[in-house]
Amino acid sequence: MRSSGFFLRIALALLLLLSVGGAMAQEHEEVKWEPWGPRVDEIFMPIKTNYSALISEFERGEIDIVPGLSASQWIDQLKANPNADVVTNYGHHVYYLCFNMRREPLDADVVRQAMAHLVDRDRIITELLQSSVLPLASFLPPSSSFYKDDVPARSCDPARAAEILDQAGYKMDIATKIRRDPATRKPMREMSILAPSGSVGPSIAKLIANECRAIGLPVNALSLNGNDMFSKVDKHEFDMYVAAYSVSRFPTSLTSFFHSSQRATGGYNKSGIKDPQLDKALDEISYALDLQTAKEAADKAQVILAERQPWITIYSRPYIDAFRKDKFTGYVPMHGEGAARNHWTLLGIRPTSGTAGVLRWPLTGEPATLNPCTYTLSYEAEVLSKITDSLMAVDPITLEDIPWMAREWEISTWEPSKGKHGTVITWHLNDGILWQDGEPFTSGDIKFTIEYLKKYKVPRYAGSVEDIVKVETPDRLTAKVYFSTESYWHLYNADLCFLPEHIWKSVWNYKTFSPWRDRHPKVKDLTKLIGTGPFILKEFAPGKYVRLVKNPLYWRINPPDGAEN
């Protein structure tokens, strides 16, 4: 059995790194932020899938931000650059191997459990990443308040993996050196681990595949373009894949990834796990009335997941972002989000001299869609988050919810049926918020969006809207959202990516709708992809770039007279 003592040393090293680096950035006197903006005229987002080339362009001053640094040589290289500011924050990041439990032999627990003993986190971290990341066996990252640090973990032990398979009847065929399936007595079929090209993924997949083949599991690694890979994943046309994901700050991420209601095409449960006891624990998270109950349920769910092993979590890394400090200032470090991913950096970043200007902010992968109902990739979210806005925001220092498009809200209960109680969220909107085509954003858009998502059963939002019974709009600035159940999380379920009714009311097939390609019916130079956020989509040149420009109608573009942060 290989030693896992390195895990502790890496964890301590990372904690030390953050204590003198990113964590320092979270000190209140160090963090400055403003609730208005944006301060740049344009964000130019070239698509850069070669990270080495991206680093070179950053050093030459051709790129202004490098988000999501991971390799130590690049981190050290940029730290030595006097024009670079490398900012570190804890991140809600998970890197994992996902099994497709719909396919044999991966539908057998023992096969997945055996493979968990073949993942050498020590080697992946030291040889492939060469950086300060946290080895991860739990299903939520250490940055989460719901992280469980004592989840039972299967250490790297190929001999134990072989023993498990032998005991379950997967015996080695001497002639082929491939194990036989005990049900068919035939050699196990060839299986593939998909990995997105242009990342560390292919190397991780190859390492795991080699360990598998060494004990008679016919597994190979297959590198694909990220969009092609995730297209297969979305259609469940895969055996296994490796990828990274940024989870939310809430344990409801577990429900999204592992509840059986999310198994459908387009849902987040890519593994296809369907376990009644797991569903029960996940439902307890979803319908918890307080954080302690949610924590207990999340612990229970993570223990079940560690036993069933639909994923093998491998590591979690901090968010390390580099900025050209000689050219831009105003970026905001934030726990769990990093400095390049949060709303306050989007609003506050600005040139160190002069005004406005163009910010060159690369996309490290190409969006396959910019449809807010169907997007799944982080690159797509990165673009859409700059175009859309939300009813609530998160204070970057206290991490508490603060009013945003909603000036205030109320949480109450009602009786959907005799003796049963449900949550009611009442939103009171700020007046004067406009869609990017000048139409007002009203409570009618909230009502329309929720009813649209329910009517067409949009998988991405199914968990948020499934318990909503009705939406009332007493006036244009008030929306009352009625749930059939009570939950602490319904406040967040009622804050969605809202759709402009005047655009989407004629869209009956959301799956084929391409709003970023369709021209706006009334406003020149706009597409049908409009939001209420700080930037407007100006151009998307596939394979080349995305170009965003400042929204002149943005409701927070200028501070009110005399306002101070």
Number of strands: 21
* CA(first)-CA(last) distance: 55 Å
Strand order of the largest sheet: 5-9-4-8-6-7
Name the helicity range: 25-40%
Q: Provide the structure class.
A: alpha+beta
Sheet with most strands? 6 strands, mixed
- What's the alpha carbon Rg, rounded to whole Å? 24 Å
Strand content: 15-25%
3D shape? globular
Name the poorly predicted regions: 1-29
In DSSP terms, counting alpha (H) and pi (I) runs of 4 or more, how many helices?
17
Integer average pLDDT: 92
Task: Explain this structure.
- A 6-stranded mixed β-sheet has the order 5-9-4-8-6-7. The chain has a 4-stranded mixed β-sheet with strand order 13-1-21-20, with helices on one face. It has a 4-stranded antiparallel β-sheet with strand order 16-17-19-18, with helices on one face.
- About 30% of the residues lie in helices and about 20% in strands.
- The chain is globular and about 80 Å long.
- Strand 16 and strand 17 form a beta hairpin.
- The chain has helices spanning about 5-20, 50-60, 70-80, 110-115, 120-130, 160-165, 200-215, 225-235, 250-260, 275-285, 290-310, 345-350, 380-385, 445-455, 460-465, 490-495, 500-505; strands at about 40-45, 65-70, 85-90, 95-100, 135, 190-195, 220-225, 240-245, 310-315, 320-325, 330, 350, 360, 390-395, 400-405, 405-415, 420-430, 470-475, 480-485, 535-540, 545-550.
- By secondary structure, the protein is α+β, with helices and mostly antiparallel strands.
